[in-house]
Specification:
Layout: H1 2-6, H2 9-17, E1 28-34, H3 39-52, E2 59-63, E3 66-73, E4 76-83, E5 88-93, H4 97-104, E6 109-112, H5 127-139, E7 143-145, E8 153-156, E9 165-172, E10 177-184, E11 187-194, E12 198-200
Parallel strand pairs: 3-7
Antiparallel strand pairs: 1-5, 1-6, 2-5, 3-4, 8-9, 8-12, 9-10, 10-11
Length: 201
């Protein structure tokens, strides 16, 4: 659960007494729970509510953390974007009755990920954790999903070693390269290849 990762029971108690995540200007980040697959719609509805209800001075940003994955299949490279936390939207706002009501009444919102058990009011999450998510998003560092692992058998499908079978010896995701042990002249020889040049058998 996202609430376990970001807001522990101790942090929730501390936030009620002294919400350290509140900024000097009174803003804070809150995690909004949505129905799965409705995150983008919720973001759009909140942004519409900001304009319709004139809340631009109290609701500042709606953020859906995403991660890019580079998939390598059959010699083709495809970049796919996934939601890092499906079912959650992050909202930066000044919490008062108007903003709380505006967000929780948005279609497909099921509530807030953390709330005060006595008052039912949402609890904020630490600013530095959201800022780290935003920084990762800005860096745009993609992960690789290459379809094979060290020790598995692969077929070389491009280059001078095409049609040769080999075993994955090491994977370098930073360079997008894989070292494959192929049999040449009766001995195992390491060959450095691009991810696009091999496919899993």
């Amino acid at each position: 659960m996202v609430t376990d990762s970001f807001i522990s029971d101790e942090e929730q108690s501390a936030a009620v007494v002294n919400p350290v995540s509140l900024r000097r200007d009174g803003t804070s980040w809150f995690i909004v729970q949505t129905y799965s697959g409705h995150e983008a719609n919720v973001k759009q509805h909140i942004e519409q509510a900001i304009e319709t209800l004139d809340l631009g001075d109290r609701i500042f940003e709606v953020f859906i953390p995403t991660v890019e994955e580079i998939q390598i299949r059959g010699g083709q490279r495809k970049t796919v974007t996934f939601k890092k936390f499906p079912g959650y939207v992050f909202v930066q706002m000044v919490l008062d009755d108007d903003t709380w009501r505006a967000v929780k009444n948005v279609p497909s919102v099921s509530g807030f990920a953390a709330s005060n058990s006595e008052t039912g009011r949402p609890l904020p999450m630490p600013d530095d954790e959201v800022e780290q998510l935003i920084k990762e998003e800005e860096l745009g560092q993609a992960t690789f999903n290459i379809g094979f692992e060290v020790g598995e058998s692969v077929l070389v499908i491009d280059g001078p070693f095409s049609d040769m079978l080999g075993e994955v010896d090491s994977i370098d995701t930073d360079r997008g390269r894989v070292r494959v042990m192929v049999s040449m002249f009766g001995r195992e020889t390491p060959v450095d290849l691009d991810f696009l040049q091999v496919e899993k058998q």
